Amino acid sequence: MLLESQIVHSGVCTDSATGAISTPIYQTATFRHPSLGQSTGYDYSRTKNPTRQAVEQAIAALERGVAGFAFATGMATISTVLMLFQPGDHFVVSEDCYGGTYRVLDKIFSRMGFQVSYVDSSDTDALAAAVRPNTKALFVETPTNPLMKVVDLRNLVGLARMNKLLTIVDNTFLTPYLQRPLELGVDIVLHSGSKYLSGHNDVVCGLVVAREQELADKIAFLQNALGSILGPQDSWLLLRGMKTLALRMDKHNANAQRVAEWLVEHPKVEHVFYPGLAEHPGHTIQTGQSDGHGGMISFQVKRAEIAPRVLERVTMLRFAESLGGVESLITFPAVQTHADIPADIRERIGINDRLLRLSVGVEHPDDIIEDLSQALE
Ligand SMILES: *Cc1c(COP(=O)(O)O)cnc(C)c1O
Questions:
Q1: Which tens digit of pLDDT belongs to each residue from 42-71?
Q2: Which residues pair with 208 in a beta bridge?
Q3: What CATH number is attached to the domain comprising 303?
Q4: Is the pLDDT of residue 336 over 90?
Q5: Are 167 and 138 in contact (CB under 8 A)?
Q6: Cα 321 to averaged position of ligand 1 atoms, centre (Å)
Q7: Looking at the domain assignment, is residue 261 inside a domain?
Q8: Does residue 68 come out as left (phi exceeding 0), alpha (psi in the -120 to 50 range) or beta?
């Protein structure tokens, strides 16, 4: 089955007792045992729940891994994956990673003895130079958030294999419909499912998929032991959203391409960061490792006073954090999503008071452009 059809049928008809097309919400904490020493396969919902299992199997199949795991949020997912490691371990991480990833590493895992180097992960030489004897993993986003830098995943895997490191990719921005890092040899792919996978700005959740069984077993153990699982209701909402992933992503791609090309020509816009533009430095690499460039655009306006005015004046576009839903949203990364990154690092890498980030929704592109146009007036 091609990916597009597989997406529609993920988590469909999992209940053989009734033949229900939509996976039921198994709102139960525990399961009756047939007799002593026997189990239906389900004992207690922290360990395994049929609704959560449906979404976990769906994401594992789409990402081409051996097993998937669903968590309460993207951050719960990332925190659980980091628990695979030990005090004294060192990580190389994208310098413009999601602000919450930076915060959990810098404020919590550093207290537990984890060491982190933040580098421009679109620069393979910089990644290689950051590797130390105690480095255990390379953890990147591609494209990065919010500067849309593209990491060469094949080079990343090559570097990791040479140094016996794990590779972890946050695939939130492109989703398995557009990019499947495990197929390129990455070990662990994770998501904030709150974004494109669920797609409707109505649920927060996270997912992780492992390429090999040994890692999957370790993550299964951590998921049950730490317990930050996704509940059955939210698992169902995520499954419901995922069925239309292909349709939505095709529209996000097309809309973002049009909006990016329009922004490039705008006299008040200094620079547009979108890998779908031929002049983007990561365009060729992303074209070679993904099936589309997604719906996220960042752009720099020419003067600082323009940015807050745009946020106040948009009408259909909503000034809100988050991304990946059907509704177009606009954010101010320096103050919102990336406020936890120290000001000097933010300034150096370009997350400044002129940078706006746009999550291009699935509305008619003319309406998105018209709203931006009047807001930039
Ligand atoms: C939102 C986001 C996260 C965090 O996910 P939550 O579901 O909000 O906890 C992690 N990585 C990226 C790239 C994100 O956009």
A1: 999 999 999 999 999 999 999 999 999 999
A2: 69, 190
A3: 3.90.1150.10
A4: no
A5: yes
A6: 11
A7: yes
A8: beta
